[in-house]
Amino acid sequence: MPANAAEKMRNSHIYSLKSACATCQKRNLRMKVLLEVLDDAAQLLKTLDSLGGMRPETRSDIEAILQGLCEESTRLLREVPAEVAVTNALNGMAGSPEHTISGLDADITAEKLHREWLMQRSLEALAAPDYERALRFLSEGAEAYPDGIDFLNHLGLVYWELGDFEQAADAYLRAMTAAFALAEDDDSQRGSVDWSDATNQDYLRAMEGRALCLCRLEAYDEALVLFDTLANISAVDYAGCRYMAGEIHHLRGNYSAAIEDYRLGPVEPASLYNLGLAYYQNGDSAAAAATFIRAFVSNIHVLHAFCARDIQTESCVPGYLGGRDYALDFVQACQPLWGNREDALDFMETCYDHVLVQAYLEQCRNSGGDSILTDTAVGNGQESWLDVISDESKVERLAENVVRRLYS
To answer: Is pLDDT above 70 for 386?
Structure first.
C-alpha cells in the first residue's frame, strides 16, 4: 500500500476517534445535568417525612421522573466501556507505534467491557434478588452476544425462579447449542469432545437445567434422555440425575426401572423413601420394609409429615437432610408419587411402630450423636453417616420380623 494511502487511512481513523471523543464529551455533559437533577430530587425528598405525605399525583410525577433518570443513567453507563476503548485507542495513536490500538482492537475491548458490565449488573440483580431487573440485563446480554453461554444459563435460572418453565427450557436449549458449537470448534477437542472435561461444564449445566424444566412441563421422554446422558457422562457429579430418572420411571409405573435408578442415585431421604415405595408397589415387601427403616434413620420427619403424626423425636443424622425443612420440601414435591397411597403409608407406619424398629432407631440416635464427635465420615455426606450408625444386616433382620408380623 502506498505511504500516502496508509497516511490517509491513519488520519481518517484518528478523525473518527476524535469525533467519538467529542461525542463522549457531550455525553459527559448530559451526565452532569442528570446528576444535578438527581441531586435536586434528593434534596426535595429529604424535606419529606414520607412519600405518603405527597398528593397522589405529585408522588406519581416524582416516581416517573426518577424512573426516567434511572433509565437514562443506565443507558449512558452502557456506553462507558466503548468510550474507554475509544480513548485508549486515541491515546495509543498519539503515542509510539508499538502502543497503537487498532480500530478492531478497540471494538474488541469495548465489547469485552460491555459484556462484563452486563454480567456484573445481572449478578447483582440476582443476588438482590430482583429477578425482573436481572431478566432485563440478561436478555440484553443474550441478544447482544448469542454465544454468551453464561448469559443464557443465568437467563434460564431467572425464568425458572419466575415460574416460566417454557422460557427457561428454551434459554437452556440455546445455551446447549452455543456451548456445543464452542466445544466442536475447540482445536484441542476437535474430533473427540470430552464432555466430562471442566471446559465443557457450561454445556452440562445447561443440559441439566433443561431436563429439570422439561420435568416441570411433563415432557418426560426428552427429560429422561438428558438425565441418563448426564449420569453416564459423570456418575459422581450428576448422581442426582439418577434420582430424577428414577422418579420419571416411577411416575410412569415402571417400578423395576425406578428401583434401579434410585439405587444408583445419591443416598439421601428422598431416594430412600421413594425406593421403599417402589419396592412396595413392585410387590417386594421385605425390601420395602428394610428400605423404609433406613429412611427412618435418614430423616424421621418425612414419616411424620406424610402421616400427620406429631412425634417429638430428632433424626439420627444431623444437618439439613435430616431436618424438618427438608422433610416438608420433599413431601410437597413428591405428592404426585405419594398422593392417594394410603396402603403404602399404612405399611410404612407399621414398620415404624414395630417395637424392635423403635429400639433400633433409638440405638441409631445415640450412636449418631457419638459419631458427630468422633467420626471423620461427616465430610462425605449422609451416605457415610448411614454406614457409620446403621447396620445393614440388622436392618434386613428387622424387616423380616416386620413382614412376618404383618402377614402372620
So the answer is: no
Cell digits of residue 262? 434410585
Contact 278, 285 (CB under 8 A): no
CB-based contacts of 300-304 (< 8 A; 24+ apart in sequence): 300/361, 301/326, 301/327, 301/328, 302/269, 302/273, 302/326, 302/327, 302/330, 302/331, 303/348, 303/349, 303/352
Q: How far apart are CA 160 and CA 158, in angstroms?
A: 5
d(CA 161, CA 170): 14
Residue 309 phi/psi, 5-degree rounding, is -105, 130
Q: Do residues 385 and 365 lie in contact, with contact meaning Cβ atoms separated by under 8 Å?
A: no
Instruction: Assess contact for 125 and 133: CB atoms under 8 A.
Output: yes
Which residues have C-beta within 8 Å of that of residue 220, sequence separation ≥ 6?
Answer: 214, 248, 251, 252
Residue for grid cell 440478561: 138
Q: Read off the C-alpha cell for 85.
A: 476503548
- 26: alpha, beta or left, given left = phi > 0 and alpha = psi -120 to 50? alpha
CA distance 277 to 347: 10
Q: How many whole angstroms from its chain centre is CA 162?
A: 13
Q: Is the dihedral of CA 240, 246, 249, 252 positive or negative?
A: negative
- Residue 138 is predicted with a pLDDT of 95
CB distance 406 to 399 below 8 Å? no
Q: Is the separation of the CB atoms in 145 and 115 below 8 Å?
A: yes
Q: Is the pLDDT confidence value at 342 over 80?
A: yes
Helix residue ranges per DSSP H, 313-375: 324-333, 335-338, 342-353, 355-374
pLDDT at 17: 40
In the three-class reduction of DSSP (H, G, I as helix; E, B as strand; rest coil), residue 146 is classed as coil
pLDDT band, residue 378 (cuts 50/70/90): very low
Quick one: DSSP state of residue 145?
-
What's the average model confidence in pLDDT over 143-153?
91
Question: What is the number of other CB atoms lying within 10 angstroms of the CB of residue 262?
Answer: 28
Taking a C-beta distance cutoff of 8 angstroms, is the pair 380, 333 a contact?
no
